[in-house]
Amino acid sequence: MIMIMSDSFDRFFPDATSRRYVAGQPLFRAGDAVRSIFILRSGRADLIRHTGRGARLILHRAGPGQILAEASAWSDVYHCDAVAVEPCEFAVLTRNAFRSRLARDPAVSGAWAKSLARAVQEARLRAEIRSLVTVADRLDVWLGAGNELPGKGYWQDVAAELGVTREALYRELSNRRSRRSATTGQARRTI
Amino acid sequence: MIMIMSDSFDRFFPDATSRRYVAGQPLFRAGDAVRSIFILRSGRADLIRHTGRGARLILHRAGPGQILAEASAWSDVYHCDAVAVEPCEFAVLTRNAFRSRLARDPAVSGAWAKSLARAVQEARLRAEIRSLVTVADRLDVWLGAGNELPGKGYWQDVAAELGVTREALYRELSNRRSRRSATTGQARRTI
DNA sequence: CGGCGTTTTGAGAGAGCTCAACATCGGTGG
DNA sequence: CCACCGATGTTGAGCTCTCTCAAAACGCCG
Predict the structure, then answer these.
(1) pTM of the model
(2) Domain A1-105 annotated CATH 2.60.120.10
(3) Running DSSP on this structure, what letter comes out for residue B67?
């Protein structure tokens, strides 16, 4: 999935120590005491919630520039797990250092508030998209919200974002291709 | 739906002018320029997004103490509609007044960040709940996240929160009642 | 060339949605 | 008091859609 993060947090903490994680390595688990704040410099990391039975819910897939588990800055224990899904590099700060910097520096707290507000918007839209019944409806709303269909090789990510299976999305895309070529009378290579 | 808002914003702006809206009255529409910040003092208000075709997505139902459209504080135009669903009373501030207060008062900016962080958590969980296929799974996760089933008369709200129809939730609740009474051997009035 | 992941398409089963009928409850007004 | 009304809860039947399992074509890269 393509994600544009104009308000990257990395730039505010250039001196923070860097820590590397290999793919699959956990950063923290639900119930752990919050000591550090993780800012993702490169790679991808998932926030995961385990339900009572085996189900794994991916609450969020973080990309470069993002802070992991925003709410942890104000909580004493984590409420979800975090795992690196690719090799990752994090800027690591103590929670106190982060919070005092937040209180001291309006630029940082502004960026923080902005990034949180955007995360709220995105998550709410995702929730509403997933309350739609058909794949066609979900895709329509997703596209209408300013997203664009990426090239082949990334469609599975879109399926995950929409909360449907790969196959369901492939079928819907196939339908749209054939419908479009039916109206234009041309076989066409859509983006 | 029951919602506990320990960090109500109302208390920070006791002097703000109050404005009343009747049920169904719009506060703003997508595309309007952002001039004011609305803090809900009483009642309920919905954030609504209209899709290309007729569908209405309820992005969020705000309750007392909450700020409407958090992201609007940093945006020049609204990205969704807002409508009072009950008679509502709002504290209304100019955006500049709100933002300067935010920059000046650490207590306010702290509460703001906390409330945003919580909103992110809630929205992400809701999104993941709605990516589950069966009503039973959605209800399990929702209950496992610290929610409790309200008394009769509020089940439709739960259905809306889970993103399923009334009937589907009624059936699932009925199943659980009969399953429970089967294991206990007793007909029981569950809450 | 031979894996490996992605895309494509098929078939069946399962689950919720829709429409519909009816029961229940609380409030209103005759 | 009772009839009526609306909203909520309950249950049934059919339809549609996705999910699941499966098989195969395609593309990329070592």
Answers:
(1) 0.86
(2) yes
(3) B
